[in-house]
Specification:
- The chain has six helices and eight strands, in the order H-E-E-H-E-H-E-H-E-E-E-H-H-E.
- The chain has helices at 2-5, 42-46, 70-76, 92-97, 120-126, 131-155, and strands at 19-20, 33-36, 60-64, 82-86, 105-108, 112-113, 116-117, 160-163.
- The strands form two sheets. Strands 1-4-3-2-5-8 form a six-stranded parallel β-sheet. Strands 6-7 form a two-stranded antiparallel sheet.
- Helix 3 (70-76) links the parallel strand 3 and strand 4 (82-86).
Length: 171
């Protein structure tokens, strides 16, 4: 399925080849998309950005607190121009390391809780006896997203930012 609809590398890219301490001032990280955080099936987010009909593809820099797992990397290993920088999405200096001043777009994924993947259904099951705790957890995720948005806009007021909020009333 992937090879039919996407621009991919004939051989998987090695995980060690995409891990960087920073992309600041890198020619590879210009007019790029920064993804803040991680979700379980990131490949479905990347696939349209690597569609065969696209004449050019934009580099993608993933900024996340935790290293990519083997499973996460296996999903992305055939895509080219994807880079990974380990860092906190809640710290200004992390955005310097992913070259925020030359980014075209930033996508903030809110399905991350303290650097680990958190599925809504699992969180709901865990907190089914305590809806107030579940509601508070969702509000905290949205608060982190808004905090990240403010850092990004402070660093680069011109970059396009797409966010995902959990609770509708936080829009």
């Amino acid at each position: 399925e992937l090879f039919d609809v996407c621009q991919v590398s004939p051989q998987p890219v090695l995980k060690d080849d995409i891990n960087f301490e920073d992309r600041k001032d890198s020619k590879l990280a210009e007019n790029h998309i920064i993804i803040c955080g991680m979700v379980e099936n990131l490949r479905y987010f990347v696939m349209p950005l690597r569609a065969k009909h696209l004449e050019t593809i934009q580099p993608i820099v993933i900024l996340n607190e935790d290293n990519l797992t083997l499973q996460q990397w296996q999903q992305l290993s055939y895509f080219t121009q994807i880079y990974f920088v380990r860092g906190s999405t809640l710290k200004e200096e992390s955005y310097d390391r992913v070259n925020i001043m030359r980014a075209k777009q930033v996508v903030i994924l809110s399905s991350v809780s303290d650097g680990t993947v958190e599925l809504g259904d699992e969180a709901e099951l865990r907190n089914k006896d305590d809806p107030a705790a579940f509601n508070e957890e969702e509000c905290m995720r949205d608060a982190k997203t808004v905090f990240m948005y403010n850092i990004i806009k402070k660093k680069n007021p011109y970059v396009n930012v797409v966010t995902e909020l959990i609770k509708e009333e936080n829009i």
